[in-house]
Amino acid sequence: MKNNTFILKARKSLKYIILSVVAALWFIPVYALVVDGLKTTIGVLTTPVLIPSTFTFSAMETVGSALFGPILNSIAYVLPVAIISTFFGAMAAYYFYKVTSFINTTIFTIISIATFIPYQIALVPLIKLTVSIGIYDSTYGLIFAFLIFYLPTGALLMSIFLAVLPKTTLESARVDGAGDFTIFRRIVIPLSFPGMISTFIFILIETWNNFFIPLVLISSANKRTAIVALESYTGGYGTLYNDSFAAAFLSSIVPLIIFIILGRYFIRGLVAFGTGSKG
Amino acid sequence: MNSSILVPHPIYVGFAMYSIIFHDPSFISAFDRTIIWAIVLVLGGNAIGVIIGYTIFFVNNKKARTIFTSIFVYPLAISSAAVAVIWTWLFNIHSGINTVLGPLHLPTPLWLDSPTTAFPSLMLVSLWLYSGISSLFYLASFQNINASILESARVDSAGPLRVLVKILLPNAKNGFIVSTAILFLFAWRIFSLSYVSLGINPFTETLVLKMFSYYETSYYSESSATGMVVAVIAAIVIIPYALFGLKRWMKTD
Q: Which of A219, A250, B17, B170 ranks highest by number of CB atoms within 10 Å?
C-alpha cells in the first residue's frame, strides 16, 4: 500500500517535470525576444542568440523611434475594427438568438465560411474594390478590408457567447413591453459583457497581427503598420540581431501586454472560435 | 475570367485559366506542399495537442494550470511575422540553436539555409505556433467528461495511459474534430511565416504564396484562379464543420 502511494507521487511529479520541460522549450522564443533585444552591438558579435550578455536599451531606442509612427498607424485601424466588429457582431448575434429560421441558418453558415476561409483569396477583388472607391493606401481602406473579415467573426463569436443567455429573462422583458433596442442595451450587453470583451480582444489581437492585408493595401512607407514595418528588420547577413529582436518585441508589444493582462479572455475567444462552447 | 485592373474589358475564357495553372510545375509543387503542410500540421498538432492537453488536465492547482495554458497559447497572440523574425535567428546556423545543439552532440541541420531542410523547418515552427490551440480544444473536451467516470477509474487505480486511451480519448471526439478543422485551415492560410523568413522562395512556396507571386508578377488571372482553388478546398472543410458547429449551438438552448 505504501509502495503504491509512492508510485502515485512519483508519477505526479514526473508529469510536472515533463510539462515543465516542454513549457520551457515553448518559452525559448520569448526568452530570446527579451534577452536579445537588449544586447549591445558587441554582445551581438560575441555571443550566440541563446546566451545572455550585458544589456542596454540602445537597440530598443533606435528601433522604437523608427517603429513609433507604424505603431500609431496600427492603433488607428485596429481600434475601430475591433469596436465596430464587436458591437455590430453582438447585434447580429442577438438577432440570430431571437429568431430561428431556415434563412438564419443559411446566413449563419455563410458567416462561418467568411470567418474561416483563408482571407488571402480576396487579394485581387479587394484591391480592385478599394481602388475603385478611392480608399486604397489609406487607413479607411484598411478598416474597410478588415471589417469584411472581422464583422462575420464578431457575429460568430458573439452568437456563441449569447447562446447561453437565459431565454426567459428576455421573454419577460418583452412581455413588459421593452423594445429590441432596449433589451439589447439593458439586458443583452450587460449579461454578455465578458463575451464582448473576449470578442473585442480576440479581434484586436488578430487584426493587429495581420501582415497580409496591410502588405497589399498600403503602398506609402509612412502609412505602414507596425507588423509590416517589422519586415525590414528580418535580418539576413549584415544585420545585427538585437535590432531584429527589438523590432519583433516592439511591434508585438500591444498584443503581448493585452495577452499578459487579459489572456484568459483571449483564450476564451480562441476556444469559442473553434468549439462553439463558452470555454 | 480574364479580368484585372490592367485589363478593363474582361474576356471570358471559361476554365482555361485553371488548365493553365494546373500545367504550371511551380503551381503543382506549391499545391503539393500545401497539402503536405496541412497533413503534417493536422497529425502533429493533434498529437502534441493531446499530450499537452492531457498533462495540463491532471494539474490540480488552478493557477499552475492557467500559467501552463498561457505558455502554450502565447505564440498565437504574437504576429506570425514576428514569429518568422524570431525563428529566422534561432535557426541561424552560426548563432542560433545550433550553438546549443552542437556541444550536446545533437544533430545540427542547416535549417532555413538548405533547400531540403527549409520547408521542414517552417513546418516545425508551425507546430510550435499552432499546437497550443489544439491542446485547448482537447482540454475543453476532457473537462466535459463526467467526473464520476474518472473517479471510478482512480478507484480501480487505472494507469495514466489506460485512463488516456480508455476514457479520455474516446470522449474527446469534439476536440479532435475541432482541432483537425482549425489546424487544416490554419495550415491552408500560412503566409507571413514563409514570406517574412524566406520571401517568395521556390523551395517553400505554398498556394497562398503562389497566388501572391502571380499577383506581384502581374499574372492577375492566374492569381485569381489560384485563390479560387484555395477557396474551394477550404470550403470543403468549412461547410461540414460549420454545419457540425451549428448543430451544437442550436442544441445549447
A: A250
The answer to whether residues B194 and B200 touch, using CB atoms and an 8 Å cutoff, is: no
Residues 56-95 of A with CB under 8 A from B: none
Query: Where do the domains of chain B lie?
Result: 16-251
CB-based contact B241 A227, cutoff 8 Å: no
Assess contact for B252 and B47: CB atoms under 8 A: no
Q: Do A119 and B189 touch (CB under 8 A)?
A: yes
What is the dotted CATH code of the domain comprising B16-251?
1.10.3720.10
The C-alpha cell 539555409 sits at B113
Contact A244, A234 (CB under 8 A): yes
Higher pLDDT, A179 or A259: A259
A9 touches chain B (CB under 8 A): no
How far apart are alpha carbons B50 and B56 in whole angstroms?
10
Residue A269 has phi, psi (to 5 degrees) of: -60, -45
Partner B contacted by A29 (CB < 8 A)? yes
Place of cell 480562441: A270
Distance CA A37, CA A55 (A): 9
A104 close contact with B: CB closer than 8 A: no
- Name which of B74, B211, B90 is nearest B130 in CA terms: B74
Measured CA to CA, the distance from residue B68 to residue B160 in angstroms comes to 20
Q: What is the pLDDT of residue B95?
A: 87
* Mean pLDDT, rounded, for A29-47: 89
- Is B82:A248 a contact under the CB 8 Å cutoff? yes
Treating both helix axes as pointing N-terminal to C-terminal, what angle do A193-209 and B80-90 enclose, rounded to 10 degrees?
50
CATH 1.10.3720.10 fits A74-235+250-275, yes or no: yes
Nearest C-alpha neighbor of B88 from the set A35, A26, A38, A235: A235
Cβ contacts below 8 Å, chain A against chain B, sum to 242
> How does pLDDT run across A135-181, given as a tens digit for each residue?
999 999 999 999 999 999 999 899 888 888 888 888 888 888 888 88
Alpha helical stretches, state H, chain B: 16-22, 25-57, 62-73, 80-90, 98-101, 115-143, 147-155, 160-162, 173-188, 192-198, 207-216, 220-251
Residues above pLDDT 70, as percent of chain A = 95
Q: What is the pLDDT of residues B17-50, one digit of tens each?
A: 898 999 999 999 999 999 999 999 999 999 999 9
Length of chain B: 253
**CB contact, 8 Å: A261 with chain B?**
no
How high is the pLDDT of residue B9? 58
Q: Where are the domains of chain A?
A: 2-26, 74-235+250-275
pTM for the model stands at 0.90
pLDDT digit string, tens, across residues A173-230: 888 888 888 999 988 999 999 999 999 999 999 999 999 999 999 999 999 999 999 9
Q: How far is CA B40 from CA B52, B94, B126, B133, B186, in A?
A: 18, 28, 10, 16, 12
